[in-house]
Specification:
With about 120 residues, the chain is mainly alpha-helical. It is built from six helices and no strands.
């Protein structure tokens, strides 16, 4: 039996992550504004700095897109995809806090909470 809430959750997160990944892979270049956002943070001091972080985020978004699409056909993948998204949202929130973007990090908390609630819904149909 199809659990329609699972389909809706999979589609919602697929759209969210696919559009973010597509935007990043369009130019195959790290935007200058992204590097500047982290120039005075710990992230800039790490090997690869903000450029590496940008592409790690892009790859995570692509992987999660594929996981959510796959979850439409293999429902057992959905909880893992949601947990993966929780970790990505936590990492994005951490980066925004480091960069001093407090409004952006507050917005990211909403995505984090939505993923947690979605995971609860998936476990409690």
């Amino acid at each position: 039996m199809v659990q329609y809430q699972n389909v809706a959750i999979s589609l919602m997160f697929s759209v969210l992550f696919s559009t973010a990944a597509i935007d990043k892979f369009k130019s195959l270049q790290t935007p200058d504004w992204f590097v500047k956002q982290f120039k005075d943070t710990l992230i800039a001091k790490l090997p690869g700095g903000a450029k590496l972080g940008y592409w790690m985020i892009a790859l995570a978004e692509l992987a999660l897109t594929l996981a959510f699409i796959a979850s439409l056909f293999m429902t057992g993948i959905l909880p893992s995809a949601l947990i993966g998204s929780v970790f990505l949202f936590a990492a994005l929130c951490f980066g925004l806090r480091l960069a001093g973007d407090f409004q952006g990090s507050a917005n990211m908390f909403v995505y984090f909470a939505a993923a947690l609630i979605s995971n609860w819904v998936v476990g409690h149909p």
